[in-house]
Specification:
The chain has about 375 residues and is α+β, with helices and mostly antiparallel strands. Helices cover about 50% and strands about 20% of the residues.
C-alpha cells in the first residue's frame, strides 16, 4: 500500500472518530431505535406537535447514522479490495481501490467540519439581517445582491427562507431585510457571516461609469427554541406600531400592523411587518428580540472564553470580513482566512461553502487554542 493511500486512510479514520464522538454514535443508535418504535404506535400522530418534533429528531439522527455507516463501509470495502489486489498481484485492482480511498477524503473532511458545529445554538434555525451602508442607491443595490447571494446559498442546501421584514430602497435595492432561515445547523453554518461586506464595481447607477465602493452588513443570530428561557420584562420594552410599507397587497398598508420593539437596557431594536395581524407581528418581533438577547449572551460567553476574539469586533460596522471585487478584475477575498476565489459571479450566485467552511474552522480552532 502506498504511503499516500495510508495517509488518506488515516485522515478518513480520524474524521470517522470525530463524527462518532460528535454524534455520540451508540446513544444515537439507541435513540433512533426508540423513535422508530414510537412512530410505529397507532396513536403517534394524535399529538401533531410532539409527533412532528419526534420525526424531525428521527430524520436528523437517521441522516447522521447513515452517513457514518456509509463512510465506514466504503472505507472498509476499499481497504479490503487493496489487500485482495496486493495478495493476487493485481495492480489494476489496487490502483482502482486506492483511487476510491482518495475520493473519500474530501467527503470525510467535509463531514468532519460538520462535527465542529457543536456550539450551544449551532443546531438552531437563525435570523439573518442585511443592512445597506451609507451611499444611497449604490449601497442599497449591494444589500439586495447580498440577500440574493444568501438566498441562493440556502437553496443549494435545501434550507427554507421566510421573509420577516423588508425596507425597500428609494430607487432600487433594499435598505434592510430580516429573514428567518430554517434547516439543519442553520445558525452553526452562518454564524461567521456576521460582519461588513465590501463591493467594488463599475456602478450601473453612475452615468460616468466610475468605479464605486459600497458596504453592507450582515448579522446572524439564532432562533430561540422552547428549551431556552429568556426573560424579558415589559418595563424594559418600548413598542411602536406603524403602517407597513413595500409589497404585500393592499391590505398591508391599511392599518398600523407593523411592530417595532426596542429593548431599552441594550438598545436592541427589532421589527416585523410580514403579516396583516398586529398580534402575529408582535409575537414574531418578540421571538426575534429573545433571539438577539440570547445571541448577546452567547457573545459574552465567547468573549470570556477567548479574550483574543471578541464577538463584538466580529460584527462591528468598521470591521470588514470579505471583499467582492468586480472591476478591474474579479476576486472575492475573505479578510479573516485569506481564502480567495476568482469567480466572483459564482460566489454572488451562492457558491459560499469554501468561505463559510474556512471561517468556521478558523473560529473553532481559535476557541480550542484559547
Amino acid at each position: 500500500m502506498q504511503a499516500e493511500t495510508q495517509a488518506h486512510i488515516e485522515t478518513i479514520t480520524s474524521a470517522l472518530d470525530l463524527l462518532r464522538t460528535h454524534v455520540n454514535f451508540e446513544a444515537a443508535l439507541a435513540r433512533l431505535e426508540e423513535l422508530e418504535a414510537l412512530s410505529a404506535e397507532g396513536d403517534f400522530w394524535n399529538d401533531q406537535t410532539a409527533a412532528q418534533e419526534a420525526m424531525r429528531e428521527k430524520n436528523k439522527l437517521q441522516r447522521q447514522v447513515e452517513m457514518i455507516v456509509s463512510l465506514q463501509t466504503e472505507l472498509n470495502d476499499a481497504v479490503e479490495l487493496i489487500e485482495l489486489g496486493e495478495m493476487e498481484g493485481d495492480a489494476d485492482v489496487v490502483a482502482e481501490a486506492e483511487a476510491a480511498v482518495a475520493a473519500l477524503v474530501p467527503f470525510a473532511e467535509k463531514r468532519q467540519l460538520e462535527s465542529l458545529l457543536s456550539g450551544e445554538a449551532d443546531g438552531n434555525d437563525c435570523f439573518l439581517e442585511v443592512h445597506a451602508g451609507a451611499g444611497g442607491t449604490e449601497a442599497q443595490d449591494w444589500a439586495a445582491m447580498l440577500v440574493r447571494m444568501y438566498s441562493r446559498w440556502c437553496e443549494r442546501r435545501g434550507f427554507k427562507l421566510q421573509m420577516i421584514e423588508e425596507s425597500a430602497g428609494e430607487e432600487a435595492g433594499i435598505k434592510s431585510v430580516t429573514m428567518r432561515i430554517e434547516g439543519d445547523n442553520a445558525y452553526g453554518w452562518l454564524k461567521t457571516e456576521s460582519g461588513v461586506h465590501r463591493l467594488v464595481r463599475i456602478s450601473p447607477y453612475d452615468s460616468s461609469a466610475r468605479r464605486h465602493t459600497s458596504f453592507a452588513s450582515a448579522w446572524v443570530y439564532p432562533v430561540v427554541d422552547d428549551n431556552i428561557e429568556i426573560e424579558v420584562e415589559d418595563k424594559d420594552l418600548r413598542v411602536d406600531t406603524y403602517r407597513a410599507s413595500g409589497a404585500g397587497g393592499q391590505h398591508v398598508n391599511k392599518t398600523d400592523s407593523a411592530i417595532r420593539i426596542t429593548h431599552i437596557p441594550t438598545n436592541i431594536v427589532v421589527q416585523c411587518q410580514n403579516d396583516r395581524s398586529q398580534h402575529r407581528n408582535r409575537a414574531t418581533a418578540m421571538n426575534m428580540l429573545k433571539a438577539r438577547l440570547y445571541e448577546l449572551e452567547l457573545q459574552k460567553r465567547e468573549e470570556a472564553a477567548n479574550d483574543a476574539a471578541s464577538a463584538k469586533t466580529d460584527i462591528g460596522w468598521g470591521n470588514q470580513i470579505r471583499s467582492y471585487v468586480l472591476h478591474p478584475y474579479q476576486m472575492v477575498k475573505d479578510l479573516r482566512t485569506n481564502v480567495e476565489k476568482g469567480n466572483a459571479n459564482g460566489v454572488l450566485d451562492g457558491d459560499l461553502d469554501e468561505f463559510v467552511e474556512a471561517s468556521l474552522a478558523a473560529r473553532v480552532g481559535a476557541q480550542r487554542n484559547a
